[in-house]
Amino acid sequence: MSKAATIFAPSPFPLTLAVLVLPQASILEVASTLDPMRSANRHLGTQAYRWRVLSPDGGPVPLTCGIELPASGTLEQAAGADVLVVIAGFKQAEVATRPLIAALRRAAPRFSAIGAIDAGPWVLARAGLLNGYRATVHWEDFEDLAAAHPEITVAPDRFVIDRNRFTAGGAAPAADLMLHLIAQRQGPALARQVAASFLTSQRDGSEPQMQANRPRLDPRIAGAIARMEQRLDAPESMATLARNLGLSPRRLEMLFRETLNQSPAAYALGLRLAAARRLITDTHHSLAEVALRTGFSSQSTLSRAFQRQFGQSPSELRKRH
């Protein structure tokens, strides 16, 4: 396949993918990437898509669910593939070692396109393979990736395709991305058949990652939650939130209690504390920085609220991790 050609275009030729799965990735991310291609082959009656699963050391990959995924080699066995896809989840900073990053840099020119799923964009970013590109990452990592790599335009989309790079924010967006690939190569009718096989539908890549998770919520509640999530570091008062939604504070309170069985203030605090817990367990930010990023006036204020919510202090949780 010509290195100048895009993989997202009609083609009669088979597409071969090297799928590098890092330890602590999710089995759902792997399945969302591979199974749409498997289903497309079934419907077509031919091997339009071929793939080989690789790992950093060539051995089985331990996934977050506790099982090990067989692999058929390391990046050295990616020779001949048209596309490289990197799937990463938790602890990417540890499992994507310096030798692996160097190997990615060396291997990159071999491929017509390079993609990444969930935390995989972090790995490509560390290798310098997203410099000057538009990309996405799992919504929990937007801010950190954008701050660490200002040379990348980080978008909150479900998936992003920019020239010969493509990125998806998680398992469900990975399935959307693969359905898009199938639609572009073999037509939208086949993509719909594949989606129907999994009792799902394809979402557009430009949709926000978080918005799609609340299709059945009252639009007013969904709007309130979206504002809360966008302002974790500078939370609005409930009166300001209600006014911006065109509601009275009492009406906002009633909607939340009727639908979610808690007040909007309690829900907002829960979001901030959940974000704080993720930052404590998944990053090396200081506890003072965690407090700042989640809208608490000080580390001690965060600690008191955290202790009430989770029964342990932030420092205790960090020691355990």
Could you characterize the architecture of this molecule?
This protein has 321 residues and is of the alpha/beta class. It has 2 domains: 183 residues, Rossmann fold (3-Layer(aba) Sandwich); 107 residues, Arc Repressor Mutant, subunit A (Orthogonal Bundle), CATH 1.10.10. It is built from 14 helices and 10 strands. The protein has a 6-stranded mixed β-sheet, with helices on both faces. It has a two-stranded antiparallel sheet with strand order 3-4. A two-stranded parallel ribbon has the order 7-8. α1 packs parallel to α6 and α6 runs antiparallel to α7. The longest helix has 19 residues. It is globular and about 60 Å long. The model has no long low-confidence stretch (mean pLDDT 94).
Q: What's this entry about, in short?
A:
This protein is of the alpha/beta class. The protein has helices at 27-44, 92-95, 98-107, 120-126, 142-148, 171-186, 188-197, 219-230, 238-244, 249-260, 264-282, 287-293, 299-310, 314-320, and strands spanning 15-21, 49-54, 61-62, 68-69, 83-88, 113-118, 134-135, 153-154, 159-162, 165-168.
* Percent helix range: 40-55%
| Second rung of CATH, namely the architecture of the largest domain | 3-Layer(aba) Sandwich
Rounded mean pLDDT is 94
CATH topology of the largest domain: Rossmann fold
The count of helical stretches stands at 14
CATH class of the largest domain: Alpha Beta
What letter string, H or E per element, gives the SSE order? Answer: EHEEEEHHEHEHEEEHHHHHHHHH
Overall strand count:
10
Domain module tally: 2
Query: CATH superfamily name of the largest domain?
Result: Class I glutamine amidotransferase (GATase) domain
Please give the order of strands in the largest beta sheet. 2-1-5-6-10-9
Approximate shape = globular
Using only C-alpha atoms, the radius of gyration works out to: 21 Å
Unreliable runs: none
Structural class: alpha/beta
The main β sheet shows up as: 6 strands, mixed
The termini sit apart by: 45 Å
